[in-house]
Amino acid sequence: MAFEGLSNRLKDGIKKLLNSTGNEKIEEVLQDIQKALIEGDVDKNTIEKLMKKIREDIKANKGKGLVTREKVADVIYNNLVEIVGNEETKIDVNSIPFKILLVGLFGSGKTTTAAKLANYYKKRGYRVLLLGLDTFRPAAYQQLEQLSKQINVKITGGGNDPVKVIKSTIDSFKNFDIVIADSAGRDILDHELVGEIKAVKETLKPNNVTLVIPADLGQNASIQVKGFHELLDINNIILTKTDGTANGGGALTAAYLSGAKVTFIGTGEKINDFEAFDPKKFVSKLLGLEGLESLLEKAKEENVTVNEESAKRVIKGEFDLMDVYEQYSSANKIGSPQKIAELMPGIPSSGKTKELLERQEENIGKFINIMDSMTKGELEDPKVIDAKRINRIAIGSGTSDDLVRELLEQYRKMKTVMKMSNNRQLSGLLRRFGIKV
């Protein structure tokens, strides 16, 4: 995923917090989070303000019975959202032709980003024109041309003088909804190239100026963002090279501190590795908390209701097969046991747990049939199921004695797993359904 290095460090801290048995781990986790942000190259002053705010928020809730691991996770989440932009920002295409000028450093992936942005808008029904204004880099126009063929978008430009290119092609703009101009890469400290981009802006008169910066630039991004912003009045920012980078926090906070919002991020080398930047979803992924929202949304879509008493027994590892039947039937509408577990960082991720979930996923339909063939007494007290009953249940469900035994074994193992997991994440999810555990 984007910012994988930073994300892995933050997820480790959140997992430690959610799997802890008491509040004594909170300060240790906060120190881990702070270290992750420092190593992720987030601006030091921003980190100090962030950690101070997190601690103040936790302290403010102490007398309200809310200082739990889940609440601390919420506080961390809310404050991280603040430093990456808080609200999703879109480019408002409010006139036709709408001209977008892309600017940025050498090697920032700007030409590929121009094609990705064109593809993004083409998929949404816009007529898009790519305009090649990079007359400095050899074969830049040819690269853009090849990319335009991949996405079936028109292209114009080329030549030796970007200003002359604009003047010679401007009449064709009226045939398109959006014109995306790819300019030459430049360092904001290079005065010759700075003069050129000012002339390009004055001639093109873009409706939007978007800065393209690589996430791996780290804190050095702040100089470039500030310089481009002062020179061209940047409207939006696109972050590239976010896949796997460990120090992308610097570019993120530089963007935020400049006042220009990150609008898109490039998540890989392929044309479709490009997405709108949603700060809340982005932070959820960074912290590994997106699963709760995804499961909740899916449950609402499928009108899944949760049996309160049954759910409580499952959380505590005190459930019977009647409860298993209830949870299997509900969870089957949301997704496979393995997928649900992946979204729940509190569930142990050992090899044994993975193997258990894989077997459940493979046989969940058969297991439901087996439980349908059991009596109420057998569901409530599986210990009474002997060899004779196993054979009767297998015949009634159209399965085998071995599969009935496997269900009983899976049931015993799952009780052990739930008792060991101390799963605060599942408790938090149930509270979202209005159930207090």
Explain this structure.
The chain starts with a helix and ends in a 5-residue tail after the last helix. With 437 residues, it is an alpha/beta fold. The relative contact order is 0.11. It has 20 helices and eight strands. 57% of the residues lie in helices and 10% in strands. The radius of gyration is 28 Å and the shape is elongated. It folds into three domains: 80 residues, SRP54, nucleotide-binding domain (Four Helix Bundle (Hemerythrin (Met), subunit A)), CATH 1.20.120; 179 residues, Rossmann fold; 143 residues, Signal recognition particle, SRP54 subunit, M-domain (434 Repressor (Amino-terminal Domain), Orthogonal Bundle), CATH 1.10.260. Strands 3-2-4-1-5-6-7-8 form an eight-stranded mixed sheet, sandwiched between helices. Strand 2, helix 6 and strand 3 form a beta-alpha-beta unit. The C terminus is likely disordered. Helix 1 packs antiparallel against helix 2 and helix 7 packs parallel to helix 8.
